[in-house]
Amino acid sequence: MEINPSSSHEQADHAKAADQRAAEVAAISRRSFLGALLGFGTVVVGAALSVPLIRFALHPLLTKTTEIGWSDIGKIEEFASLTAPLKKLITVDQRDGWRKIVSEKAIYVLPIKDGVLRVLSPICPHLGCSIPWIEAKQQFICPCHTAIFTLDGTRVSGPAPRPMDDLESKVDNGMLKVRYQYFRQLIPTKEVLA
Amino acid sequence: MGDAQEPNGKPGEPRLNRRERIYQWFDRRTGIGSLMHEALDEPIPGGARWAYVFGSVLLFLFISQTITGVFLSLYYAPTADHAHTTVAYIVKEVTGGSFLRSLHAYGSSAVVIVLLLHLTQTFLYGAYKGRREVLWISGCALLGLMLAMAFTGYLLPWDQKAYFATTVGTNMASEVPLIGSTLKRLMRGGNEMGTLTLSRFFVAHVFLLPGAILGLIAAHVYLFRKAGAAGPPSEDPIKPRLPTERFYPRQVLMDTAVALLMICVLGLLSHFSPTDLGPQANPADTQYVPRPEWFYLPVFQWLKYFKGSLAVVGIVVIPTLTAILITALPFIDRRLERRPWRRPFAVGIYLAILATLITFGWLSRHEDRLDPAIAKQVAKQTEETEQFMREPFEPEAAASSLSAPVVVVLDPLAAAGKKIYESESCDACHGENGVGTSAAPKLSGATAQRSPEELAKLLRHPTEKMLAGEMKPVDVPEDDLKALVAYIKSLK
Fold this sequence. Notes:
- The complex is a heterodimer.
- Chain A is of the alpha+beta class.
- Chain A folds into two domains: 5-61; 71-179, Rieske Iron-sulfur Protein, CATH 2.102.10.
- Chain A has helices at 5-57, 59-62, and strands spanning 71-75, 86-96, 99-109, 119-120, 133-134, 139-141, 148-149, 155-157, 166-172, 175-179.
- The longest helix of chain A is centred in the N-terminal third of the chain and has 53 residues, at 5-57.
- The model of chain A is unreliable at 1-6 (pLDDT under 50).
- By secondary structure, chain B is mainly α.
- Chain B folds into two domains: 41-390, Cytochrome Bc1 Complex, Chain C; 408-490, Cytochrome Bc1 Complex, Chain D, domain 2.
- Helices cover 61% and strands 2% of the residues of chain B.
- Chain B is built from 20 helices and three strands.
- Chain B has helices spanning 18-30, 32-40, 54-72, 83-92, 97-124, 133-155, 160-173, 180-188, 195-227, 247-272, 297-302, 311-327, 329-332, 344-370, 372-390, 412-423, 426-430, 452-460, 464-468, 478-490; strands at 43-45, 244-246, 396-397.
- Chain B starts with 17 loop residues before the first helix and ends with a helix.
- Chains A and B meet through helix 1, strand 2 and strand 3 of A and helix 3, helix 4, helix 5, helix 10 and strand 3 of B.
- Strand 3 of chain A pairs parallel with strand 3 (396-397) of chain B.
């Protein structure tokens, strides 16, 4: 069979062009593969880095920095033989971000009754005045609007909508501790103010 | 049945699918197409190369520094009495705080390293030649501003090394002839380092310098595009002859790859070896051996050789001349020859400067190691820093809060009065320690003008106005009243 030189040339040209196309296709697919890889890498690294950024910004929401902790009142023996409510001053530590706010608050430790030691908030549930223990009358009498309470905080008379508020307390290592909180005024139920 | 409606206006126009139509709508209103063309189709004579990645990487690092910086400022307070506490809070308490701060601190070192690489590449490739003088000068200005960023940022944590390194740094400014002492006081906001210094450095670091850098980056990129990419050293810097390749995709891929590698390295470093925070600055410490950040060490060492009145030569004259020499380089070296081996003199000087800097930096470390007294003090400082990092975060007592020691009453009569003040529930309305509440005025200070007798009378017989405000006459024995008055008088 006679081979036509021109046709073999053409064939060679075709082959060359095909090779070139194949090479181009390979180059393009390699390039787009690399591009996809880098795009993927960028998204992954970006996402990985945005996690600490978001957590950093949300830190105050993720941790309870403003929660009030336990304050010391005194050694438990001090209160073993109380016969009348005893007013004590406590310091309350509060966290405000990187700051520590220390404030002084008053509380009443009640005489032990049925083996239970109670701690009362002196804040009147009526309008928030602080209530003194009147030794002579053996009653808590609010100086503002004369709400009157018994030795254990039960309401006797006056405008107060509920008894005096109990504070959460515990004994830890012989130390009486209290969690100081404020409660909503003018309502018949005890509700913690956030 | 009629003909199907052409969805895209005139017949004959190619049919577009939904995505293409949205793109067309957006492009007609924003010109995003030509913008992307302008940004991505920049021709690079001789094609993409790894040597050209540094500019993009710098831009990327600047963005990273901006993001981490903005986030850090969420918890930072730039005053001398809070700065250290807030940074300690970031490092020890805030979720991811140590990581972000380390990313920012290591990022600043990375900026300096990549700046040097960018400068070196531009210099060795002769890429400042051929109508690129203004482009080069804008780059030099950016270099200066970035070094200023590193200098101002270094002070912000207000720990020992920040305080003392900046004390030395600002003292150096006073060597400038004629305006030196004014310049130093301007930087410090006074004669001494203090809270005003911190404010100034903060404003420079967060507002002024980044603003200037942003503007200069825009100018730098614009000028670069105006002059065109210079290509390899064999290329003609004015009329490029080599076949070109577009910026996208290969050069973009290379730039992105290096930027990703960079952030991964910084991330790993920050995670596994976070930056330390030392104890709070103590200006009274006379033992402290201050050492600047590593990239200022060569200058630090250099200054040791200029004693007494010669200091001005080392601090001002030679650095200024060097800065002028570098900035004016395209005016001094006007030949169009770019190949480094054909420019032995220029390349020689550059390598000499580089070698000198590295040698001085190394010498500084070496001398510190050789001097036993300094080595001991440096070890002690490292130990103090490690100790501080081990301690849990200690929140700062707010000045406005009442801590028990503050309310100690010294006078026994007044102390007795305090008890009566509380048992009579005066504090119900006048507040703890007479600070006042919404119900009644404060007693502290307000009673200073009245005599004790007058006060006692007021307490027994309140005025009409006081009675109207629900003030009750005080009903206590005379001695108790005296104590109460003494207490009220004692309130400051």
